[in-house]
Amino acid sequence: MEEQPGVDLVRLDFSSYKGVSQIKRMYSSDPILIHTHLAKVNILPEFNYELENRVLHASLSHHNVENDGFGKDLSSKLFANSAGDFDHTWEVGLSEDYTYDMDFHFGIGKANLDLSGLRVKKCKVKTATADVDLNYVKDASNGVEMDTLMVKVNMGTVKGVNIACAKADQMIFDVNYGKIDLNFKDDFDILKPCNVSATVGAGSVYIILPASRYPYIVKINSTAMCRTSVPSHLSSIDSETFASKGYHEDADNIMTFEIDVSVGSLTLK
């Protein structure tokens, strides 16, 4: 898609039922560049865009019109060990010259999002059985304040590295069956007031917390079927709430972690 003058926001809705997807910054003045390799070229994606009130609306949809049953797709997810096993690959390039509001819908496969150095107001990801990696490069944080970062996965793994670089007010991670793995360790200089929600139905949550000198609290909701490990540097406010050494109620950059695991394990470092 060519450069669009007079654009305040790019609203991208991307949907693919299968594949390995890469979303990252490109060094171009175009707002969106999408490259794909499809194993079956008779199944073509549908792409549309329009400019309205200085907002560029762009959408790509790739529906499953194959005769593959769900069982075959599920087997592909469980036993695949290379990108080719998911049939299709997608590369979505974004420009640092534009501000984005994005919705991604992935079916089966993998999704790797590197939003380093971009301007993202909102990013929501939903998947059926696709793993999601969300990584930021240090010193390449979001160019604007983000409202919401959300990842919801039915079955799979969500992994986030340096995700405080998203500078989001709300971070929501929700996995029915699988794992949430988040790392806040190296994000000290950009910590801001933020609510982080991590929910797993059956599986595990593993979070590397910020240094204890920064103000944050951790609220845990778990059951007897969840094994929980809390580091000793957190102090107990009550049986379900813990605070860092730097926490005090009137701090202006408090982070709140709300963690809910029904069956499995919760490990905080």
Description of the molecule:
This protein is mainly beta. The protein has one helix and 15 strands. The chain has one helix at 70-79; strands at residues 9-25, 32-37, 46-52, 55-62, 89-94, 99-114, 119-135, 146-161, 168-183, 194-208, 216-222, 226-229, 235-238, 241-243, 255-268. It has a 15-stranded mixed beta sheet that branches. Strand 13 (235-238) and strand 14 form a beta hairpin. It is globular and about 55 Å long.
Question: What is this structure, in a nutshell?
Answer:
By secondary structure, the chain is mainly beta. The chain has one helix and 15 strands, in the order ββββαβββββββββββ.
Strands, helices and their partners?
Elements: E1 9-25, E2 32-37, E3 46-52, E4 55-62, H1 70-79, E5 89-94, E6 99-114, E7 119-135, E8 146-161, E9 168-183, E10 194-208, E11 216-222, E12 226-229, E13 235-238, E14 241-243, E15 255-268
Parallel strand pairs: 1-4, 1-5, 1-6, 6-7, 7-8, 8-9, 9-10, 10-15, 11-15, 12-15
Antiparallel strand pairs: 2-5, 3-4, 11-14, 13-14
